[in-house]
Amino acid sequence: MKMKIFYIFFFVLLFFIGVIGGYVYWIFSDLPDVKALEGYRPFEASVVYSSDGQVLTEFFYERRKFVPHYEIPEIIKKAFVAAEDIRFYKHPGVDVIGILRALYRDIKAGGIVEGGSTITQQLAKMLFLKPEKSITRKIKEAILSIQIERKYTKDEILGLYLNQAYFGNRAYGIAAASEAYFGKSFKELTHAQIALLASLPKAPSAYNPFKKPDIAIKRRNIVLQKMLEEGFITREQYNEALKEALPEHPYWRKFEAPYFVETLRQELESKYGERLYKDGLKIYSTIDYNLQKKAEEAVKNGLIEIHKRVKPQVQASLIAIDLKTGYVKALVGGNDFWETQYNRVFSLRQPGSAFKPFVYAVALMDGWSPDDTILDSPVSFPGSVQGKSWSPKNYNNEYHGEVPLRKAIALSLNAATVRLASQVGIKNVVEFAEQCGLTTKIHPYLSTALGASDVKPIELTAAYSVFATGKKIKPVFYEKITDHNGITIEENKPEIQQILPEEIVEQMRELLQEVVLSGTAQKAKELGREVYGKTGTTNDFSDAWFVGFDDNLLVGVWVGRDNHKPIGAKEAGARAALPIWIDFMKQTGPMLK
């Protein structure tokens, strides 16, 4: 009988040993390899810079800036040790004494008031394990922690933790948390601010200083008390820190040049996908920060003046492009990005008379000269409906008879321009406009000579580079992109194509300068330097334009309403768009030379 009981006990023991052994084997076989930490790189925000070094924005899934452990001040490390794991530098990854102490306090309090997880265990959980609550996960966490401690130094582990931890308010890592809560670098934090950040990873929502300030300040002061007890700060520093108020609001970065930044984001997302939001790319944009501010100011001031004359809700766009490279130096897509993200630089609008230079350029290529004459008198052409005619009319129904081309374009004479288009061939005009970079549908009808076909402001503006230099340029939004190590992964070279010969360019510049000297844009003479361009107005005053350039910069301004209703009576290009253009160009002269 005793022998039988012995055998039963023996086989039961073997069974349990087998089960436990299998369980342990399963845990170890399913463990992640801590060697993966050697290539550890958390999701990191990509940063966009202006051409003059200003940070415009960040693109991220998790707002984070990676900081090497050796750059983190010792007082920050000590604060987190005090708050999370006071025996951090003494235990091997799992703190048995800490677990027993936490268990005692939990039993004494009749509930869970303190956890026993070390900083290393928290790191293991964040990097390798799912956030489930189970004994198996805790065992894996402990094993991983011991393995991590054997392979990495305490400072390396603490650095990884401080880069990975979530602090609430969409901030991951100590660098992003410092900016999100205090609007400053982690190297500039006070003791009170450090203590507040050290109190957050335990429960970011529970200790949120913006929503639960009373709880947050108590938790912060507990951390300060622990720092004092451990000798990390002096009594004087402790007393001073207690007096410091909590932050009142998070520091969300309202990114600069918003219409430009959103355009850039869309372009880069189509090319880089998720990398844009997690790989810490450095994007060097073409935007000149100072010019961008001047552009935004010019649009704002211009619309204020317009709204003194007409009902509100008029919008405007401005794009400035470097003539030599195609680099976009300033871009404003509307009155207020934070109110509407619709970017009018890419909207479809009728260009009105701003399209006329394409007609005159074709005439010059066909052998005409600026001093050749064209008849400006009432004229009719067959309309789109059989039996009906189309009669383009001049502004105020004034006609001038035989006029040289320079006068016809300067005064923006419709009848003369349509006659010219009919003689050189509207199909030739359409083909030339497409050669210059217009990609929208340009209809081969004579009304197109007066701007009846929709164009995008960015394309119409860029196309004027052909009149300025003879070369077609493609608008470029960024110069280069580097990875987080500073290695260049892409350079965005200018795309330039010769379209017009030099002699035709000189004649086109003559014609477009005449618009300023004696035509519809005479107000631009106040700039006191040579500038060139063309006004544009649609028949019902729903679109107002001025596109022009100097020797460095090409700038297009459009004004109108999103619903295509008229801006207001007599709100032509010279009155609505040109003042914005002039205001901006006053700021640009020496900046690009």
What does this structure look like?
Helices cover 43% and strands 12% of the residues. It is of the alpha+beta class and 593 residues long. Strand 4 (315-322) and strand 5 form a beta hairpin. The termini are far apart.
Largest sheet: 5 strands, mixed
Q: Which percent range describes the beta-strand content?
A: 5-15%
- Rg from alpha-carbon coordinates: 35 Å
Strand order across the largest sheet: 2-1-3-11-12
For the residues shown, what is the average pLDDT? 89
The helix content, as a percent range, equals 40-55%
Per DSSP E runs of 2 or more residues, the count of β-strands stands at 16
Describe, in short, the structure shown:
Helices cover 43% and strands 12% of the residues. It contains 21 helices and 16 strands.
Question: What are the defining features of this structure?
Answer:
593 residues, alpha+beta, five-stranded antiparallel beta sheet, elongated
